[in-house]
C-alpha cells in the first residue's frame, strides 16, 4: 500500500444478498488500490450473507448489524456514519467493480475543485451479455444542466469526498427511497464539481429481483411527490427542466393508471396528443399483468 493513498470507505448495504455477494466483495478485495475499508451494513438479513462476509479474514472488512430493518437509503445514512475514509464509495451486493476502479478515480481528486468522481459502467445480464451504459462522453465540471437534460450518473460508480456529506443531518432523503440517489446527485451537483470517466469501471447486474422492478408504481408515486414537495422548479429555476417535467408526466400517467383507467383517460383527453392518446388506449385495453411487465422493462 502506498503511504500517500487516502482511505476510501466502501458502503455495502445488504439484505439477503448471498446470491451475488462473493462476486461483489471479491471485486473490492482485488482492487489495485489497497487503502480501503468495507462498511458492510447488514439490514437484518435472514440468509447466509453475514456468514459469507465474515468468512473474509481481513481487518478492512467491517461488519455492522442494523438494529431493525430499514429502507435502503436510511441504511446508507447509518452506514456512512461508521465510515472513516476521506472518500466514500457505494456498491450494492448484486453489482461489482473493475479491479482498477479506485486506482483510476482517486487521483482525479488532486484537482481540489472536484468533489465527486464517477464513471461509465456495463449493464450485465444473467446471460452474461454486457452493454455499455452510456454511449457518449460523461460530463465533468459544473454538471447540473447536463445531468438534468440526460441523467448519466451510475451510483455504483460514485466516489465522493466524505466532508461534503458527513456533516449533513440527512445525507439521503430516504422518504423517497426509490429515487434518493437522483435527489442526492442533483443537490450535490449545485455544491461541487464532478469528474466523469468515460471508461466503464463497474458492472450493474440486471435481474428480476431489483427493487425498482418490484416497485414501479411506488416509484411513480414517489417521483410525483418528490417533484412537488422538493420544489424542483423553484430550486432549479435557472435550468431547463423539460426532461424532469416529462418524466413527471410519465410517472403521473403510471400513477393514475394504477388508480383508475377512467381517470387516466380523462387526463389524456385534458392534455390531448395523438401520440399519448394511442399509447393510453393500448394501456387501457391490455390486461394489468401485461402492463406491469411492459412498465418494468422500460
Please, could you describe this protein's structure?
The chain is α/β, with parallel strands linked by helices. The protein has two domains: 8-209, Spore Coat Polysaccharide Biosynthesis Protein SpsA, Chain A (Alpha-Beta Complex), CATH 3.90.550.10; 215-296, no CATH class. Helices cover 40% and strands 18% of the residues. The chain has helices spanning 18-29, 49-54, 72-80, 101-105, 144-149, 180-189, 211-214, 216-229, 232-235, 242-259, 261-270, 274-285, 288-296, and strands spanning 8-14, 36-42, 61-65, 87-90, 96-97, 114-124, 130-132, 159-161, 193-205. Strands 1, 2, 3, 4, 5, 6, 7, 8 and 9 form a nine-stranded mixed beta sheet that branches. Helix 1 links the parallel strand 1 and strand 2. Helix 10 (242-259) runs antiparallel to helix 11 and helix 11 (261-270) runs antiparallel to helix 12. The termini are far apart.
Defining key terms:
298 residues, alpha/beta, Spore Coat Polysaccharide Biosynthesis Protein SpsA, Chain A, 2 domains, globular, disordered C terminus
Regarding quaternary structure, how should these chains be classified?
A: single chain
CATH-level-4 superfamily name of the largest domain: Spore Coat Polysaccharide Biosynthesis Protein SpsA, Chain A
Give the proportion of residues in helices. Answer: 25-40%
Cα(first) to Cα(last) distance is 44 Å
Tell me the CATH architecture of the largest domain. Answer: Alpha-Beta Complex
Task: Please indicate the count of domains.
Answer: 2
What's the total number of strands? 9
Q: Determine the mean pLDDT.
A: 87
Regions with pLDDT < 50 over 5+ consecutive residues? 290-298
**H and E order:** EHEHEHEEHEEHEHEHHHHHHH
- The best one-word shape is globular
Strand content: 15-25%
Radius of gyration: 20 Å
Structural class comes to: alpha/beta
CATH class of the largest domain: Alpha Beta
| Number of helical segments with 4 or more residues | 13
